[in-house]
Design brief:
The protein is built from 6 helices and 9 strands. With 242 residues, the chain is an alpha/beta fold. β4, α3 and β5 form a beta-alpha-beta unit. The model has no long low-confidence stretch (mean pLDDT 95). The structure holds NADP nicotinamide-adenine-dinucleotide phosphate (NAP).
Length: 242
């Protein structure tokens, strides 16, 4: 007879402690708000962490971490203690052309999105699940983003390997397509960004470009689903299909 498990549909995190590294902006901040709204105590971590960041949202504490530094990651988790779930949305990447791009930028990108997630997973004391972030470029690359494609592929492989090695802790990966309204494209001129969003929306089967909340909902479901581990969840408007 199979064991009884709490169904994913209730998605309650009451009494659970969740750390979101990258919770200070974008998809991470949406996960912080969503988890707190479902009863969790949430630690939102990033360089900009400040106590006023989540204002009226109950149950959220902001703490500083620099994912560029292994010492900072180690110290952060030593001080944090045990959590039910670890989410890592924090990332910085420096893409460029494959042949002529800077090797420093390529190596910095691996530090900023692969080794950072690897180290968070390694130092965190987690009892229920780890959620890592890759991105659609792993399987739908474009010229000029080969380093991001390689990092995303490595994160997805790491997620599967850790699902086996760290069991019964569940390990999953979310792979977003283009998401609007996050800091990722904040430096782009507004008209160029809007043209990118409009052009992508026309191409995608979903006929829209999602925002941070459209990733946070499925991410929270994955964290709450006792039967989901080793999964890569694409939230991309169907972008892999066209
Ligand atoms: N947005 C998209 O279109 C898209 C598409 C595909 C994949 N993704 C992936 O989805 C994930 C989340 O993306 P997003 O758009 O939500 O990100 P975002 O809005 O750009 O936010 C990035 C987060 O990373 C944190 N961060 C950056 N450098 C850090 C450092 N050195 N130390 C600590 N924290 C640092 C930032 O916090 P502080 O500034 O406070 O440090 C911020 O909370 C990333 O892995 C991204 O690659 C996003």
């Amino acid at each position: 007879m199979s064991a009884t498990v709490a169904g994913p549909l209730q998605e309650s995190f009451a009494g659970q402690r969740i750390v979101v590294v990258g919770g200070t902006a974008g998809i991470g901040a949406a996960i912080v708000r969503g988890a707190a709204g479902r009863g969790a105590t949430v630690i939102a971590a990033g360089r900009r962490a400040s106590e006023h960041m989540f204002g009226a949202v109950q149950g959220v504490e902001a703490r500083a971490i620099d994912i560029a530094s292994e010492a900072s990651i180690r110290a952060f988790f030593a001080e944090l203690g045990p959590v039910d779930h670890l989410v890592v949305t924090a990332a910085f990447v420096r893409p460029g052309p494959f042949r002529n791009g800077s090797m420093d930028d390529a190596r910095t990108s691996f530090e900023g999105k692969f080794w950072s997630q690897y180290l968070c997973a390694r130092y965190a004391e987690v009892s229920r699940s780890i959620l890592l972030f890759s991105g659609a470029y792993s399987r739908r690359p474009q010229p000029g983003v080969s380093i991001i494609a390689a990092i995303n592929g490595a994160v997805e492989a790491l997620g599967r390997a850790l699902a086996v090695e760290l069991a019964p802790v569940r390990v999953n990966v979310v792979s977003p397509g283009l998401i609007q309204g996050t800091d990722a494209y904040a430096k782009m001129p507004q008209d160029v960004r809007q043209a990118m969003v409009d052009g992508t929306a026309k191409r995608l089967p979903a006929r829209l470009v999602g925002d941070a909340d459209s990733v946070a909902g499925p991410a929270l479901s994955l964290m709450a689903s006792p039967y989901a581990t080793g999964t890569v969840l694409d939230i991309d408007g169907g972008g892999l299909l066209v």
